Amino acid sequence: MTHASSGARFYGRAAPRKIARVKVEVLLFASLRDAVGRTIAVEVPEPATVTSLRRALEAAHPVIARFGTRAKLAINEAWARETDPVAPGDTVALLPPVAGG
After folding, report:
1. pTM of the prediction?
2. Of 59, 74, 63, residue with least CA distance to 37
């Protein structure tokens, strides 16, 4: 049996659904910039949140995971909470903890 809209073959099961994803570019600072680079891009399933973005970043770049939630994310120049949404076109920055005097 062929599904009329996609041409994909399936037998008694619904055709698999594609999960919508959003590409997010993240600016890195301080030691993260030194370790990974100035910017990185990851894809996150929609609806994207700071938590899902953090997980994608940690999976793509394990050096980020060592900071956990001590590394702070900012969206559009405001500190973000883990439940805040992330949308395409947002300016996202990731900053590791910084010691100073």
Report:
1. 0.78
2. 63
Query: In this model, does residue 68 exceed pLDDT 70?
Result: yes
d(CA 89, CA 23): 9
Q: Which three-class secondary structure state does DSSP give residue 38? A: coil
Q: For residue 86, what are the contacts with CB-CB under 8 A and spacing of at least 6?
A: 22, 24, 44, 48, 49, 50, 52, 53, 75, 80, 92
Sheet strands side by side (includes 78-79): 39-45, 21-28, 92-95, 72-75, 78-79
Of the chain, the end-to-end C-alpha distance in Å amounts to 69
Phi-psi domain of 77 (left: phi exceeds 0; alpha: psi -120 through 50; beta: other): left
Q: Is the peptide bond before 62 cis (omega within 30 degrees of 0)?
A: no
CATH topology of domain 21-95: Ubiquitin-like (UB roll) (3.10.20)
Which is higher by pLDDT, 7 or 48?
48
